[in-house]
Amino acid sequence: MIDVFLDGGDESGSTPPPAWWSDCLEPGMPIGRVTFCGSGLDSGTAAALEGRQWDIDHGKSSIAACNRAITHAALARRPLLVVLQSLRVTSAVLEELRRCLTLDPMFGFSVPRIGSPDGKSVIVRPAGGVLESDWAPRAILSERPEHEILVEQRSACVLIAEGLVSDLGCLDEAFERLDAAVVMYMAMARRRGFRIVLANRAVAESTGDHAGVAGLAGPADSDRERLARILPDRERIWLQSRDFGAERFERILGAALRRSESPERFSVLLDLRNLAEIHNGTSQAALGAACALHRLCRGPEVQVLASPAARAFHRLDAVLPGWPIHASPVSGEFTCALRLSQPWQISEMIDLHHHALFSVFLMLDTIAWDIQYLGPPHLDGTWQFLADHADGFLFISEFTRQRFLARFENAKDTPSSVCHLSMDACDYVVGEPGRAESAEYLLVVGNELDHKDLAQSVDVLATAFPFQPLQVLGSSVSSTPVVTRHRSGSLSDNEVHRLYMGARAVIYPSFYEGFGFPIVTGLGHGLTVVARDSDLLDEVVAGCEPKGRLLTYRRRDELVDIVGALLHGDSLAERQVGRSFAADHRKNWDEVGRDILRFVEQVVAQPSGGRWRRRERVVQQLLASRG
């Protein structure tokens, strides 16, 4: 047997429809005394309802009326069901609420999920337990456990255990609204060790205004201020509990489910925080893919993360018009976070996790992990987290995929795909490709990182051919009469194009790459490209248009021999270019964008959120380690 309090007033934000109480409690429920506060119920009608004992209060204070119900339940040694709005509480709902209270002797309150009148939606748990909430598809409940332990929680329906109504006393009548007073009551119980349990399999459906259910309307400002004053640590407790992540998950999953049934299908948070204020391979890959997505994404909502400096340097507002650009993670929920390069800090992945149900990463290479000196501190731990918790990987070459999986075997079960970057000469050549008639210099491309082998290769070539002009792209060392050096990232696309146009041949001495833009660019200009041999080389040039010449070497002395033969016009063995090239299906940037979108669609097709929850547990543990 339980007692019931029904709040029929308008203190909680809206007025129930007439006679809502007649459908609130299912016939045959084991109910003792029913206390009703408000208008719309007369004593004659009440007495006719199955002979139940009714206490009818036409006063203005719902809190005072509820306190009378608490006092009576305490004297009768019964639990008390508090219903703040027009809900349908069935016998099954009540039984589940009572069952949850028996799961642990320190469970003092049980609350159901609140459903919409049409049965399609439920209320997302309120942020912080007191702020405004929202509706989400009822399907989110399939991803929630049967019950969860909460910090105090606003709800339109609460079952209070018998022991608490006996010993905890009455509600604080200094509050303006009953729901805030109940939250304070829960907090008082929590401070004594009693917790709230959320019954995810019990849904009490609204029978009134879909938008006016208590639990959506936020508490009065005076109540919010009073709660903050009496419980100054309450916000910290909420943020550091699992409730915070569960609330965020419900919002993100709910938004993803809604979008999956709309024409837009999904939304994307595009992470370009890897962009620096230079022109290099990373910026070329990220911007090429981003611009392709911009041309293709006419439906899905897209917002961008980028630093203010990179935003200005790369003119992102002009390059990606119509997409909001933010310097730091934004409020809102996205179906997928897409980072167009590997992450360098776990904090970057946590940012994306907090705003998106899925996280997908475009992996350019594993060079920083292999060479060690270049990467940020704890890169190994960062990429171990990445391998364990990413929802999907796009690799710019099979070569890069094999390198990453060999180093992080725990990523083998994560969905992945190879997404080659553009191999279309039209994406790299400004105007007509070709070689200037006065071409005299050799163009050597790289940067000052050791794996590029730029400085040593230039020294060898300058020594072997002291009168041969060299243009070196990627060096900050001073020029000489024969060797002209251009600092890495300092030239615009047009200036780089002019360097290629004026070159006699392109030399790319790098030991280790993830793709190799200079190779594709040189061949696109129809030039002779001399590159260090590797498995990656065959993979990339297979999709290039069969133009230009590709010559390969393994040691620097072989490079000298090849350059000498070139300068003297001797014949050389060439590597095949364009083995898998198809003129009617060129791999250009738009095709890259389509590959990315197809992969993202596959990842988000089943928004179960299982990996999000696992990731959230680890994120909370990491945050706890910071103290």
Describe the structure.
α9 (242-260) packs antiparallel against α23 (610-625), α10 crosses α22 and α17 crosses α21 (556-568). The chain folds into three domains: 2-238, Spore Coat Polysaccharide Biosynthesis Protein SpsA, Chain A (Alpha-Beta Complex); 268-422 and 592-625, Glycogen Phosphorylase B (Rossmann fold), CATH 3.40.50.2000; 425-568, Glycogen Phosphorylase B (Rossmann fold), CATH 3.40.50.2000. It has 23 helices and 24 strands. Helices cover 37% and strands 19% of the residues. It has 627 residues and is an alpha/beta fold.
Broad shape: elongated
Arithmetic mean of pLDDT: 88
The CATH architecture designation of the largest domain is: Alpha-Beta Complex
CATH class value of the largest domain: Alpha Beta
Give the percentage of residues in beta strands: 15-25%
The count of β-strands is 24
Low-confidence parts lasting 5 or more residues at pLDDT below 50? 10-18
Global Rg:
33 Å
Number of helices: 23
Helix content: 25-40%
Structural class: alpha/beta
CATH topology of the largest domain: Spore Coat Polysaccharide Biosynthesis Protein SpsA, Chain A
- Main beta sheet, described? 9 strands, mixed
The overall number of domains is 3
Q: What distance lies between the first and last C-alpha atoms, to the nearest angstrom? A: 46 Å
